Amino acid sequence: MTAKGGEGERQVSAADVDSSRATVLHVDMDAFFASVELLEHPELVHRPVIIGHEGGRGIVSSANYAARRFGIRSAMPVARALRLCPQAVVLHPHYEKYRDASAEVMRIFHDVTPVVEPLSIDEAFLDVAGAVRLFGPPARIAADLRARVRRETGLTCSIGAGATKFIAKLASTRSKPDGLLVVPPERTLDFLHPLPIGAIWGVGPATRESLERRGIRTVRELAETPRQVLEGWVGPAAGAKLHDLAWGRDARHVSTSRTDKSIGHENTFGADVRDVGALQRELLEQADRVAVRLRKGGWRARTVSLKVRFADFTTITRSRTLTEATDLARRIHEQTVELLDAADLRGRAVRLLGTRGEQLVRAEDELLGLWSDQEQWRGAETAADRAALRFGRGAVLPAALLERPADRERLADGEG
């Protein structure tokens, strides 16, 4: 592996790397939404570009790497992004274009191997062990994939290759943008242990800060912490998972049976609603219902989406992918309120409102929220679950729901 200059500590593989046992690939499209938009605006390729809506509380959906050098990131308010980089060009998102481009990229993946596990619209795992006899070692397969994606779509991607999903995903992140990093099994710990603890799945800002206060700043220091100590800090399951990941252990396989499940709830109002406060209260109740169903099913949602249908029956949907999957109503409600604000309704009458949790993952597979300020809300919400089980739903409700509109039809839908 050789380090190269670029954004952050970008790493790419040497040409002679032994990839024979690094048969799990993680392919991640580079600045996907922005890259798709720039196909129609080649004159902007070298300028900072933001995908989002100016004005109001518009949120950055994506930004190209020229913009990211100024500190611009997804989910940042567009107004703040423009303060960081006043010369940035703002382009409005076109989600149908992104879906079409994603379908084309996924088709290319399936031409190489049937063992493809999409994670989102712009990333997927591939197991290429069965493709080696046809196409050569994994490094060559990955290089050919990158070349074909660029040739057939005009887009670039970064690929990580390793013996496990965890290492492959870490490698693709380190190779961005437009890179390839292969981590042979025998080099796994050499690659993994110098990384900061934030590289470990499930170690978010709050977790990282708490570990650093305990003197743990690198994955090596985490690995060298006795499992029993970690379990004492975060519980047996989370401690065991942290310890395994710190040693590069990940037993999960690339799965083609994964389905894009979702859990949602939507309401059609008996009379059209213009009052933003009433809409926000409605979103709070929907968030509560969705979160309860997520917890009952043992799911967490990586993406939260909002659906708004206006009085003239035009419909918009907005979504946001979270840094950590959630099953908490508070977190879901925060996101849908921000999405509603960003939609800039301009006083339009709303006929239907909906909330949905998407890209579901099993709760036991996620290492989340360690030492997070969300944990106090998890305790409150699970206590409400127990009260509802004993006394019926409505025994415990957020105060904001004590005054709620009654003139509506309730339409709940299940997993899709």
Describe this structure in words.
By secondary structure, the chain is of the alpha+beta class. The protein folds into 4 domains: 9-30 and 97-191, Reverse transcriptase/Diguanylate cyclase domain (Alpha-Beta Plaits, 2-Layer Sandwich), CATH 3.30.70.270; 33-95, MutS, DNA mismatch repair protein, domain I (3-Layer(aba) Sandwich), CATH 3.40.1170.60; 194-246, Orthogonal Bundle (DNA polymerase, domain 1), CATH 1.10.150; 262-413, DNA polymerase, Y-family, little finger domain (Dna Ligase, domain 1), CATH 3.30.1490. Helix content is 38%, strand content 22%. The protein contains 15 helices and 15 strands. The protein has helices at 32-38, 65-68, 78-84, 95-112, 132-135, 138-153, 165-174, 188-192, 205-213, 219-223, 227-234, 236-246, 276-297, 329-343, 375-391; strands at residues 2-3, 11-12, 24-29, 49-51, 62-63, 89-91, 116-120, 123-127, 157-162, 180-182, 262-273, 299-310, 315-326, 350-362, 408-413. The strands form 4 sheets. It has a 5-stranded mixed beta sheet. α4 (95-112) packs antiparallel against α6 (138-153). The longest helix has 22 residues, at 276-297. It is globular. Residues 1-7, 368-373 and 399-416 have low confidence and may be disordered.
